[in-house]
Amino acid sequence: MAASVWSGYLTFGLISMPVRLFSGARSSGISFNMLHRPDLQRVKQQYYCPADNRVVERSEIVKGYEFRKDEYVVVEPEEIKKIEPRTAKTMEILEFVKASEVDPVYFESSYYMIPDEAGRRPYALLTKALEESDYVAIAKLTMHNREYTVFLRPHEGGMMLHTMYYAEEVREVEGFGAPDVELKDAEVKVAHQLIEALAAEWDPEKYHDDFQENLKKLIQTKLEGGKVVEIDKPKKMAPVVDLMAALKQSLAEMEGKKKPAAKAPPEAAVAGGKSRRGR
Asked: Which residues contact 116 (CB under 8 A, 6 or more apart)?
């Protein structure tokens, strides 16, 4: 099992249970190194002190907060440790709210919450109670030098934790909202039909990062000495003049287009050399 990113106690009234958090998702992709073009050697990042006119070692570096232009107060790691709130080791449930009332814009990162042996029974009890209600738990948690408001929800028999942005961190964009336009009932009706034509069950396995796949192919092509071929780009579409005509044309193109994908026989998968998980 991967290393936990936080361990401590989840408290629920007078009930306390030891739990651990594990990262629920992370970004992945092709990474590049920075090279010196003439000799293709990796370049190194160094810290330079203009006052001493020399490169400094990491052991000489401290953290500082700029309280005035070019004036800093130094903060030591042990000083930060001293002021950690109780939520550094204890995650207290503050309240329960309706899941539908929490806007996903507040969600930041996702974690699996797993109980230690001594916390299995209260963990199971809380999870079941949440599963049978429309509520989720709101708690506070400190990690990575920050105190988070977190959202706890049942998931596949266990519990997921999502760190959340604070209200002051959620940006407002001027002009965002419903445009001041009048829609015709017929247009709305055809829009609903178009949505139904594209409707499907949620399956995250269907979606892939085409750009990352193209990067892999580009790298392989260059390793083999081949020529990089440009991918066809979609033509720039003209602004819609007749909305109803565009809706009807879109709907016509979608009819008969959605058919269940034929599953490859087992021998075809074997002949391919690798399973989807092994790519």
From this structure: 17, 18, 19, 20
Q: For 90-95, what is the mean pLDDT?
A: 94
- CA distance to 31, 210, 211, per residue, from 227 (Å): 22, 19, 18
If phi > 0 it is left, if psi is from -120 to 50 it is alpha, else beta; for residue 63 that is beta
What number of CA atoms fall less than 13 Å from residue 35's CA on the CB side? 8
Q: What average pLDDT does the structure give for the chain? A: 87
232: phi then psi, degrees, rounded to nearest 5: -60, 135
Helix (H) or strand (E) holding 110: strand 107-115
* pLDDT of 56 strictly over 70: yes
The CA distance from 245 to 251, in Å, is 10
Please list the alpha-helical segments (H only) found in the chain: 77-82, 120-131, 185-198, 210-223, 243-254, 266-271
Closest CA to 136 of 171, 166, 167, 164: 164
Distance CA 261, CA 168 (A): 45
The torsion angles phi and psi of 74, rounded to 5 degrees, stand at -85, 135
Name the DSSP letter for residue 260: P
- Which domains does the chain possess? 6-27+84-169 (2.40.290.10)
